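Form 7-S
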Amino acid sequence: MSLNESGNGRSERGRVTLQVIAERLAVSTATVSLALRDSTVVADSTKRKVQRVAREMGYIYNRSAASLRTSRTNILAVAFHDVSNPYFAEMLSAIDETVRSSGRTILLGTCNESIPRQENVLSSLQEYRPDGIIVCPVGGSTEDSLRNIAESGMPIVQIAREVEGLSADFVGSDDRYATGLAVEHLARLGHKRIAYVGGNDGTSNGRARHAGFLEAMKQHQLPAGIDCIVPGDGKRLTGLDSVPRLLAMAEPPTAVICFNDSVAFGVMHGLQKIGLTPGRHMSVVGCDDVSDAALWVPPLTTIHNQHIEMGRLAAEMMMRRISDPGNPPRRIMLEPRLMVRETTAPPAMRH
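Output:
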């Protein structure tokens, strides 16, 4: 036992160190360090033994000391505007799983679609000295509203939404193409009165999905007047509240394309509350393809925009950016695909 240790295997200051664990197991401190970071360099049996002993001895990783040695904290910050939406929860899980495989930890901040809160959250996250920040900007974000973080030199990866003029990596889905796929599907089924519910022009994906809807409607020579557009946020209540408005039209739509799956779930609930069945009485198409979409009754036809792949790629992009900060910004656009389920069918006959 070394001179600065007490009988219980702790240092005089009461803290279990890598050296104490290494001496207990008769291995090097480097082996202990790698084992605690779950490195593939160390044999699984050794990793399990080191991790078990570290737990038993009450070892606590000194992240601040490690960051002083390496100039990195192995923390990645994530700033999302909303994690109550399953879309972002599933995306966050993909990010977390990807970065943890490299020994990094996620620090999350939520911005609630508020620019002042986003500024506060980003400032707070920076105080923890993360190695980079993955951000889905809130609605209305501009280059100026993200200037402080951009000028800090900290690596930034934008995900799902992008801010015009911001020089940063981006990974997202082709949202314009997504709503075009939805219109094409409904037009082929014979629908001529198609409404669009939810979303706004304050975000890049909101603008793109709206534009894709209008372009596809024009291409198929279908009417897309202001009465067929129901703006709103991306929450279920927007979809629920839209149903009475849509049905009160002189010529109600036979199909609805929703900004996202949450809005579509609201529309479906609104229809079911008054005894109508999505797919039979009115077709409904969502966008995102969260895991719940296939579990609803009836299962939701939606656009799969690869949000889990988006999370994985954003994490990998960030890790590459940290390793090679001098490379020019990259932009990855994933191609969505239509998932046909039971909420779409030819328009019901009117009596």
